[in-house]
Amino acid sequence: MTYRHTRQRSLHLTRPPLSIRMRPQTAWRSIGLLKRHATAQHSFLGHRAIQTASSRPVPNFAFAFDIDGVLLRSSKPIPGAADSLALLKEQGIPFILLTNGGGKHETDRVAEISEKLQVPLDASDIVQSHSPFAELVKGPDEASALEHKCVLVAGGDGDNCRRVAEQYGFKNVVTPGDILMANPAIWPFSKNFSDYYKTFARPLPSPIDPNNPAKSLKIDAVFVFNDPRDWALDTQVIMDLLLSSQGRMGTLSEKNGRTDLPNHGYQQDGQPHLYFSNPDLWWAAAYPLPRLGQGGFREALEGVWAATTGGPSKGIELKKTVIGKPYQPTYEFAEHQLLRNRLKTFGNSTDLPPLERVYMVGDNPESDIRGANSYRSGFGSSWQSILVRTGVYSGGDPAYTPHTIADNVHKGVQWALKSSKWPAA
Ligand SMILES: [Mg+2]
Fold first, then answer.
1. Distance in Å, CA 134 to ligand 1 centroid
2. Which of 132, 287, 318, 423 is most deeply packed, by most CB within 10 A?
């Protein structure tokens, strides 16, 4: 299946991304300034680290680190990870954590990592797979803003992801568990898990009423924020919505299967758009072999979709947006965050050298390496990929060729420092 190459709807990130914590207008302005700043400086500054007025050397490079399989493995620090980050902090070399993980708010996630690696971090030092979803709260314009629309959030423990979505600013968030507890017949096989669901389920904003479709619960967007814990329930609820009329639960679109319509009428009737984060099929956990990731759930859903509709063999696609590594918008979002952090650290002085190189250190050729290799920066930097052997990658010819392969993150960082001729290397 060639789902990775199917056409994907833009996440409005064809424009530069916003910070998850900035007001949109401010962010757009600052992106413009950053771009002008970088371009102006490119014309007269060299390629090495530059001394600023404060005499502190300012590197013209930075790092992006994947987390699982690079810094941590099943929540335990990987040897050399803490020392590497401490060295970068001490040397004033900017870095960002760029993970396809998620399920917690950025603040909570960095607090855990900070404690494990004994390195001070704050929420602006991390981009998780679902971080760019925060862009959709306000959207590029009022009409497409999802802030006050009803959105379905799937995945993660309990309703942690609902809470993350609410912290991003979504005001009306429903989970598949809410739907199940209000309508146990929607997926009878999940009744065994009702003790779990009742710990966090909330009443629905409106009931599911097939007899009165105009009043039935309407969902305006579907987000798979993190790995679903109950694939079956989530598959059923998402399929119901994809086949519905106007995203009204309990309805079935009459356009489905109509060969005179685009996509044989599927997803042509105001159904909610489907957003996935984290495309990883596999990830490195405590078990000796890689485990199925969130990408596995997406493949399963694609399979059910194809079996139901006829799928690609009949020219029918599942229209969706996928973000996370290796996709461009996620790297764009991360680089913007890096540039903002850099300005915060070094100030907006006129002799601040442009960011020319970012080293992406990752363990997954399919996401970390592929993404860094294919990313085209709108800010003028080039990205170099460093593949480590402490996670998913287990040797041999990787599917996507990195600039170098290092035994671990420490060796990777040393290679990069040397490559950038940094004195501490
Ligand atoms: Mg990884």
1. 23
2. 132
